[in-house]
Amino acid sequence: MSSTTRTRFAPSPTGPLHMGSVRTALFNYLFAKQNKGKFILRIEDTDKERSAKEWEGDIIEQLSWLGLKWDEGPDKEGSYGPYRQSERTELYKTYLQKLLDDKNAYHCFCTGEELEAHRQEQTSRGETPKYSGRCREISETEQKEKLKAGNNGVIRFVVEPKKVTFKDLIRGKIEFDMSLSGDIVIAKDLDTPLYNFSVVVDDSEMAISHVIRGEDHISNTPRQILIAEALAFTIPEYAHLPLLLGEDRSKLSKRHGNNSVKRFREEGYLPEAILNFLALLGWNPGDEREIFSLKDLVKEFKTERVQKGGAVFNLKRLDWINARYLKEKSVSELAQDAVPFFETAGFTPKDKKTTEKIVALYKERMHKIAEIAEYAGFFFQDFLKYDKELLSWKGSDSETTKAMLKKAESILIEVKDWKEETIEKVLMEAAEKEENRGLLLWPLRVALTGQKSSPSPFEVADVLGKEATLQRIKEATNKL
Ligand code: GLU
Asked: Helices 398-413 and 420-433 sit at what angle, rounded to 10 degrees?
């Protein structure tokens, strides 16, 4: 093995890239970068039926958007390619043949029914079911005949019934008693290797120094170690990341909602906020800090500080982190980010300045950019829908409300220099004369927004412009 740290993210392109996978990718990235090593993207597409180019495209697109750059991968040449398993069949074949030649693997011709019957027998005896190893005994001649007759069966790896121990960077020493496991299927045939085998060949051939992956793979590790030993490969170091849990503390799954990166991207979460959030799923800096750029994370991340217990995928925390990043962005950046969301909602702000003004009104309270289209919808509607009762300030009657709106109208008609400060000044002067400011300001604000809560009428009037403001006041008056 080279002395360089080399980690890999090895997704199977069988569906959209989800957040849990990105957490794995991120930890691999951080570990590689902080050790001045390389981060490799390997597409594990040996399952031809379930893999699709579309999903490979999604993996590449979303990882790129997130800014997790790989040093070698299907679209980035390196000395260990190709980086798609479907293009490495010959290599797997060579090693499968070697295992067969060395009697570390054999063809198994047991049928599904035979295996099932055996399983049931074992279960009824109260034993943990495992493959009996029956086909190990088949003579070479019989084997050849069967293969010739087109009965391919499967290829099984001889699992030695010994204890396999490894040191997990997160969990410490882990031991598996392999006498509990039967011989495992590592390929359907010489051209169709399965996960546990191809991953071992690739990790070795690609000189992967550290395998960092989810805890759900932990029981695969002793099998992979045995296969690697049989092929005289160097065994990489392992780190198994804690499971991700839903808010109900069960394993995070589709049941908890759509966790694809695409969804979060479409909702307007920022890539830097997503990475920050994912980094904290199982890792913490050991103090109170919660905001980390990718650069900070490369510096601060330590496998020793990765927890063993499951990490809850807490969307409120993501919202909070995202809001923090949104606050740090300039109004003009946010306005640019908001454009696609306005477009999707069918809103066309008059000009860039207007978009910026709207964004500025919500910057402090937004958790994600998509919210801007919900919050700001009233700016773009020709007719606002709201109950006329909403116009009245704390139970005042509709005559009073109407009179107040008329007053606001007559004041605003006179305003020449239409901008927030001027509007505020003249309206506040009038409002202070009332028994309560709300008497004048509340109906006006509702007339302009149709909302129970919103920014102040001065801010809204400024964005709407004089004509639309007066028009909305008229419509409100007509309701009463
Ligand atoms: N293709 C496997 C997966 O997506 C990779 C597992 C591993 O990292 O070894 O789960």
From this structure: 140
